[in-house]
Amino acid sequence: MLGLNVAVMRDLTDTMYDSKEAPRVSHFTGNSLMTQYIETYIASSVLSTDFTGKKQFRFKEDTRPLVAFIIADNEYHSNQTLPQFAHDLLLKEGVNCEFAVGKPISEGAGVHNIENMQILNDADLAVVFVRRRALPPEQMALLKDYVNKGKPVLGIRTASHAFDAKKNVPREGGGVVAATTQAPDMLAQWPEFDKDVLGGNYQGHYGNMKEGIALSIAPGMESHPILKGISPKGFTGPVAPSESLYKNRPLQSANSQVLLLGNIPNEPTEPVLWVNNLDKGKVIYTSMGHWEHWKMDEFHKLMVNSVEYLLGDHK
User: Fold this and answer.
1) Per-residue pLDDT reduced to its tens digit, 189-225
2) Residue 79 — pLDDT band, cuts 50, 70, 90?
3) Could you give the CA distance from residue 251 to residue 258 in angstroms, rounded to a whole number?
4) Collapsing DSSP states into helix, strand and coil, what is residue 260?
5) Cβ(67)–Cβ(29) under 8 Å?
6) What are the angstrom distances between the C-alpha of 165 and each of 16, 160, 168, 188, 246?
7) Where are the beta strands (DSSP E) in 175-307?
8) For residue 259, how many other CB atoms are within 10 A of its CB?
């Protein structure tokens, strides 16, 4: 940009947008779209928080529900599919979407860090698509505080093993201690996130297949709002690299309500999508989320329905 290094401070940016003009959205959604355009085609962005250390600025008149996308995955292209999904929500569902993003890698410098986790302080819904990351304790504390408040969570695919790094991960210069110990010099893990929050029981997967997973509605669940628009006959998943049926049976929460089942030849039926009713708050998890799933109308409907269900009275 004229040979200069430029960044936009996105929370202190406003736009001149007439909501009577296309795409006919609210002023604040128009503002979000303009910031999105600038970030994509013109310049990177920062928050006032990066300079002040204080909570980011928000327009008090902006009453849209805030969906926080927590993304850190190296296998399923979630850094591409979720921003597109968020764009659709922004345009069609009247919500605000913000991102906390980690590098789409499995190892190397910076792998165990997710920037912008402070968006959870204001979030009405957290969408988690993370794979085997440890986090600085202060970042993990933001997520645990969010969950402990009873706020809703939508977990996708690798969220079942999001915070189980499977090894000790010290801070730079810190000592190695047991992975379950959260000490100041140790990156924090939360392997119980699957059982205690999602209500799952992830035990790996059955491996890649030569045919798609047969997905069917659990008996008696046909009228559930999350399944709105889904054929009672179910549908078939894609055949694609890295696509596989996750092993989650039996679920670990007595308060889980299974909505969608998956079948492959010669193997037991597995739960694929369910609602976990916690003492405080609701959680939805699906083991779907492969990049090919996002091309399917059925999966897109399931995800939109899930967001609407979890936001509830916030919309």
Assistant:
1) 999 999 999 999 999 999 877 889 999 999 999 999 9
2) very high
3) 9
4) strand
5) no
6) 45, 12, 8, 10, 18
7) 214-217, 235-236, 256-263, 270-277, 282-286
8) 22
- Tokens 């928080």 label which residue? 49
Return mean pLDDT, the chain. Answer: 91
Rounded Cα distance between 275 and 277, Å, is: 6
CB atoms within 10 A of CB 15: 13
> What DSSP string runs through 5-33?
--EEEGGG------TTSTT---HHHHHHH
| CA separation for the pair 282, 198 (Å, rounded) | 9
The answer to whether the predicted template modeling score (pTM) of the entire model surpasses 0.85 is yes
Q: What is the pLDDT of residues 105-142, one digit of tens each?
A: 988 888 999 999 999 999 999 999 999 999 999 999 99
Distance CA 54, CA 74 (A): 31
Look at residues 42, 46, 17 and name the one whose alpha carbon lies nearest to residue 31: 17
Nearest to 274 by CA among 213, 207, 218: 218
Q: Is the peptide bond before 191 cis (omega within 30 degrees of 0)?
A: no
Domains defined along the chain, listed by start = 1-58 (no CATH), 64-205+276-314 (3.40.50)
| 246, 160 Cβ separation under 8 angstroms | yes
The token duo for 205 is: 């997967």
Residue in 99, 29, 39, 98 with CA at minimum distance from that of residue 64: 29
pLDDT value, residue 176: 43
